[in-house]
């Protein structure tokens, strides 16, 4: 019967429920225990080395971040069968420092950002920072890493956030280059309901109505770009397009149950182009919305406007295997003890 055929196909291709649960357990364990050791190491470095040498401490923590964050592209590309392509219009300096703007698709946007950075080669993705909610700083393990790597934290209280973002450039002014700071200017993950709300807001305010994106929020971008203007090379506009067979979630990625392609389209902009942050960002988001609409009609035509950015020669997943070995070794020693 058709039902028996489907069951047979699932069993012979190795993706039965039991296989997926096994993959999920193994990788979840590596992700969790790896986060434990890396975050604790960062805290030790912050406490014992940073008081005497900020630069040395930052370099060590950056290397630890690179070791752990390489898990993200590994999960997408090797653990799963997702073809991640980073494409560029024009050129982007591999050794440049940038403020990166990206569309906010869902809960895995951070993985797509790290996969982008991984292509650049060392010290990425350890040199990636992001604007995140301050509540994440108190999440055990991951929040400790965000704090140690000097992410920018916001509280959704503009009086406080304006001050923090305006001073962020001074805080990382002597951070060893290169580094990227990621910000999702839509302010929220996109859902069908939020898209309708955004479109209604635009109609009421007489603003351009977007079909594929939430209308961007300007204040955080303006404060951060002004703070970083003299310290980085420019702004990178990143457009993430997901083309996978199944809905992408952390569970499906950890259980090696996702196939397809992810396209990350990058375009560099110099600060000289940004006379007024609000006008410029509105124009960028209108262009991005049109690009996504064109992609739905003629995918190949859009992709041909960009050139694939080849992975750096030193890019590899060796650090993932090292981290996994440390996790296995410490687990065995703990069991013996």
Strand numbers in spatial order across the main sheet: 4-3-5-2-6-7-1-8
Total beta strands = 8
Overall 3D form:
globular
Gap between N and C termini? 53 Å
SSE succession: HHHHEEHEHEHEHHEHEHHEH
Report on the architecture of this protein.
With 337 residues, the protein is of the alpha/beta class. It is 52% helix and 15% strand. The chain is built from 13 helices and eight strands. It has helices at 2-12, 17-48, 54-69, 71-79, 109-120, 142-148, 158-171, 192-205, 219-228, 250-254, 277-297, 299-303, 318-336; strands at 81-89, 98-102, 128-133, 152-154, 180-183, 234-244, 259-269, 307-308. Strands 4-3-5-2-6-7-1-8 form an eight-stranded mixed β-sheet, with helices on both faces. Strand 3, helix 6 (142-148) and strand 4 form a beta-alpha-beta unit. The longest helix is centred in the N-terminal third of the chain and has 32 residues, at 17-48. The protein is globular and about 65 Å long.
Task: Itemize the secondary structure elements and their pairings.
Blueprint lengths: L1 H11 L4 H32 L5 H16 L1 H9 L1 E9 L8 E5 L6 H12 L7 E6 L8 H7 L3 E3 L3 H14 L8 E4 L8 H14 L13 H10 L5 E11 L5 H5 L4 E11 L7 H21 L1 H5 L3 E2 L9 H19 L1
Parallel strand pairs: 1-7, 2-5, 2-6, 3-4, 3-5
Antiparallel strand pairs: 1-8, 6-7
Helix pairs in contact: 2-3, 2-6, 2-13, 4-5, 7-9
Characteristics:
337 residues, alpha/beta, 8-stranded mixed sheet, 13 helices, globular, disordered N terminus
């Amino acid at each position: 019967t058709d039902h028996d055929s489907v069951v047979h196909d699932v069993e012979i291709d190795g993706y039965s429920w039991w296989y997926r649960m096994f993959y999920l357990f193994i990788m979840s364990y590596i992700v969790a225990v790896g986060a434990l050791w890396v975050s604790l190491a960062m805290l030790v470095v912050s406490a014992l080395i940073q008081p005497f040498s900020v630069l040395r401490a930052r370099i060590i923590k950056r290397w630890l971040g690179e070791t752990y964050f390489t898990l993200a592209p590994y999960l997408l590309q090797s653990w799963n069968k997702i073809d991640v392509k980073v494409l560029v219009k024009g050129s982007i300096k591999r050794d440049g420092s940038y403020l990166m703007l990206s569309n906010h698709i869902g809960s895995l946007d951070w993985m797509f950002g790290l996969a982008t950075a991984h292509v650049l080669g060392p010290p990425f993705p350890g040199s990636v920072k992001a604007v995140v909610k301050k509540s994440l700083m108190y999440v055990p393990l991951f929040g400790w890493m965000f704090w140690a790597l000097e992410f920018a934290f916001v509280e959704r209280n503009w009086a406080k956030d304006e001050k923090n973002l305006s001073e962020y450039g001074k805080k990382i002014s002597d951070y060893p280059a290169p580094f990227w700071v990621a910000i999702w200017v839509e302010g929220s993950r996109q859902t069908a309901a939020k898209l309708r709300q955004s479109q209604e807001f635009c109609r009421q305010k007489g603003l351009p109505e977007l079909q594929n994106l939430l209308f961007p929020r300007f204040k955080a971008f303006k404060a951060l770009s002004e703070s970083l203007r003299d310290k980085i090379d420019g702004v990178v506009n990143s457009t993430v397009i997901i083309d996978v067979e199944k809905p992408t979630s952390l569970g499906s990625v950890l259980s090696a149950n996702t196939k397809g392609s992810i396209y990350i389209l990058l375009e560099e902009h110099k600060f000289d182009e940004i006379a007024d942050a609000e006008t410029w960002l509105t124009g960028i988001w209108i262009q991005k919305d049109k690009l996504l609409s064109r992609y739905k009609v003629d995918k190949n035509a859009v992709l041909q406007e960009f050139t694939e950015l080849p992975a750096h020669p030193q890019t590899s997943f060796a650090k993932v295997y090292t981290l996994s070995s440390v996790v296995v070794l410490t687990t065995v020693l703990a069991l013996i003890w």
